[in-house]
Amino acid sequence: MLSIALFVAAFAYSHWTVAFTLISEGPGFQVGRIGSVIVTIHTQAATVELIKTLDVALEQHRASFPRFSVLALVSGGAIKTPESGLKDLVIAQEKRFSSAIIGAGVAIEAKGLSAVLTRTFLAAYTLLSSHAFPVKSFGTTELAVAWLQSLPNQEQYFAKDSQCAALAKQALTTRLAA
């Protein structure tokens, strides 16, 4: 009986991360998942449409994964002033899903002064804002994924997965090439 349980556990772990699964997309963004992790890809500034799309995706995702992490990948083209009215939608969304989200990692995959300023702004915003879950920004996808994996209460397969960062980076690269 124990050997069957070990086989099932090994099979589940070896097949946990198969790919980036696209859930929805719109102008300048994609929302998908890698296992239990919601991945958002931003190639343009955030919009109300993105937040509303993400809302639906988070609700559907929560039905399968009561606790999950969020990984936001931001390219250089997304470093712009967001639409007005976005802040209230984001705050409402965070409140609605705060009990489900383990942590949110933001990877600013861009170079130059605007990327540095964006990471600095996000770091300051995170320190000055209250969040029901940890939020942190990084310069690379790999660092963001490693930080998310280190958080307590992570889904066990994600916490041990060595492919997640590469799959997320590949999804971002594919979106930028499109």
Summarize the structure.
With 178 residues, the chain is of the alpha/beta class.
Care to describe what's here?
The chain has 178 residues and is an alpha/beta fold. It has one domain (2-177): Transcription Regulator spoIIAA (2-Layer Sandwich). It has helices spanning 2-14, 48-64, 86-97, 113-128, 141-150, 156-160, 164-177, and strands spanning 21-26, 29-34, 37-42, 68-75, 101-109, 135-138. A six-stranded mixed sheet has the order 1-2-3-4-5-6, with helices on both faces. It is globular. Residues 1-17 have low confidence and may be disordered.
Secondary-structure blueprint of this entry?
Layout: H1 2-14, E1 21-26, E2 29-34, E3 37-42, H2 48-64, E4 68-75, H3 86-97, E5 101-109, H4 113-128, E6 135-138, H5 141-150, H6 156-160, H7 164-177
Parallel strand pairs: 3-4, 4-5, 5-6
Antiparallel strand pairs: 1-2, 2-3
Integer average pLDDT: 79
* Reported CATH architecture: 2-Layer Sandwich
Number of domains: 1
CATH topology: Transcription Regulator spoIIAA
How many beta-strand runs?
6
Order of helices and strands: HEEEHEHEHEHHH
Structural class determined from secondary elements = alpha/beta
At the first level of CATH, what is the class?
A: Alpha Beta
Spatial ordering of strands, largest sheet: 1-2-3-4-5-6
Low-confidence stretches: 1-17
Major sheet details: 6 strands, mixed
The percentage of residues in β strands lies in: 15-25%
Distance between the termini: 49 Å
State the CATH superfamily name: STAS domain
The helix fraction, in percent, is: 40-55%
Q: Radius of gyration in whole Å, from Cα?
A: 16 Å
Determine the number of helices (DSSP H or I, runs of at least 4 residues): 7
Overall 3D form = globular
